[in-house]
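Figure 3 (text version): structure tokens given as input.
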């Protein structure tokens, strides 16, 4: 994962920043008091780490990408940034009151070891994961234009049942899951953030900050898909496509677990 994100990290913050609503829900689900010590694992360039610090938390961020951590360090000198792997977190036992992970578990080699590591470094408190699932991605309208890339990306996504079962194996109690629907004013341009703004995907800078396009999609598929999307936007057929891809599963999911 590190080489991929070292490359993405070069221009990541051009299109990626913390979304206020996602930040608000992360803080709500963490259920910690101000100045609590909270760890953001696989923190990337630290957008959500910084946003959570601004809500009053004492934040720590860890990522295995040197390029990502370099950019993170430029954003805050009060956050404790660490270069490290989620499978061997560089922290002592029971030092955090909460842990967050945003749009990253699909990059883990396995779920159990990182979840056990989170359990180890938590004193007591919640582990909040924001992710998409294989089931949810089947209903992204992006499948219409980039079917191979989205299918491969969906295969990377563990289903929510596997996530919760693995959290249980690691020792956590499951508090619950909350689905998240993309809104038109979303500020963080991750994979399905253009749900209501198809024009967004015509921008190469936006695509370069999304791992599905940067890592999984072939140049040929992107070229063909973009041309088809552009034509559908011009002809307004895109409205028919957006209507076809509807789902009751939500677009993303917060998974909330607790160590008591």
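Below: residues designed for each position.
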């Amino acid at each position: 994962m590190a080489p991929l994100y070292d490359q993405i990290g070069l221009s990541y913050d051009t299109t990626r920043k913390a979304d206020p609503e996602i930040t608000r829900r992360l803080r709500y689900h963490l259920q910690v008091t101000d100045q609590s010590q909270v760890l953001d694992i696989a923190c990337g360039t630290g957008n959500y780490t910084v946003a959570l610090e601004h809500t009053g938390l004492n934040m720590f961020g860890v990522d295995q990408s040197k390029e990502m951590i370099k950019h993170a360090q430029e954003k805050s000198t009060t956050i404790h940034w660490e270069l490290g792997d989620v499978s061997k977190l560089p922290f002592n036992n029971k030092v955090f009151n909460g842990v967050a992970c945003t749009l990253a578990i699909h990059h883990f080699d396995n779920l159990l070891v990182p979840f056990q590591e989170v359990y180890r470094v938590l004193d007591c408190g919640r582990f909040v994961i924001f992710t998409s699932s294989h089931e949810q991605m089947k209903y992204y309208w992006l499948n219409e234009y980039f079917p191979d890339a989205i299918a491969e990306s969906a295969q990377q996504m563990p289903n929510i049942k596997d996530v919760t079962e693995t959290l249980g194996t690691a020792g956590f109690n499951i508090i619950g899951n909350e689905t998240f629907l993309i809104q038109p004013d979303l500020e963080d341009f991750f994979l399905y953030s253009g749900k209501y703004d198809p024009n967004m995907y015509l921008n190469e800078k936006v695509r370069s900050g999304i791992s599905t396009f940067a890592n999984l999609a072939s140049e040929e598929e992107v070229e063909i898909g973009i041309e088809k999307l552009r034509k559908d936007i011009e002809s307004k057929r895109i409205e028919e496509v957006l209507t076809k891809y509807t789902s009751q599963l939500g677009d993303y999911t917060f998974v909330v677990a607790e160590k008591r």
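The chain has twelve helices and seven strands.
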